[in-house]
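Hey, can you fold this one?
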Amino acid sequence: MLTFVWDIDDVLNDLMRTWFAEEWLPGHPECRLTYSDLVENPPHRVLGISKEEYLASLDSFRLSEKARDLQPNASILSWFQCYGARHRHMALTARPLDSIPCLAEWLFRHFGNYLRNFSVVPTRLQDSVPRYDSNKGDYLRWFGKADVLIDDSEENVAAAQSLGIGNVLYPQPWNRNAETVDETLRQLAALTEAN
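Sure. Predicted structure:
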């Protein structure tokens, strides 16, 4: 039985797309960009703002009712219904600690039938808070039980690959996966059927 490790933001949900549509665009009516123009993550340079301004806006959104009401990725929910019971699944996220309680509730409300573990690599920690891992690669090295990482970050996928962990790059405008979501999930289904 394989252990699949799932990124949450922009894989299990559409955090960036929803933030962009419901937070950024209404507050910046002069912006002519579309979601597909966000070819960097973080997208602060594309948006013409500082990284700090972008993170403050996204972090505020993460704590909002809109974020609590994010719809789960319907394609992945469907994938879980077909293939989820064949293997173990856990979630691994990298985000500020203050947003984790709401995210955990969201995760288990929508994906709790399949995802039984939830781990965090906290970002932007205060000096007084212990730091166990600097990134997802550090966490996966310590964890030692991951077989496949599904993530939208090329950096995280490369870290998994360097550890000998299988990986699937989930398509987003800021990465090089030119496949559709359906093609990507078929690739993931093939892994479940081969094991």
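The two ends are 7 Å apart (CA to CA). Let me know if you want another pass with a different chain boundary.
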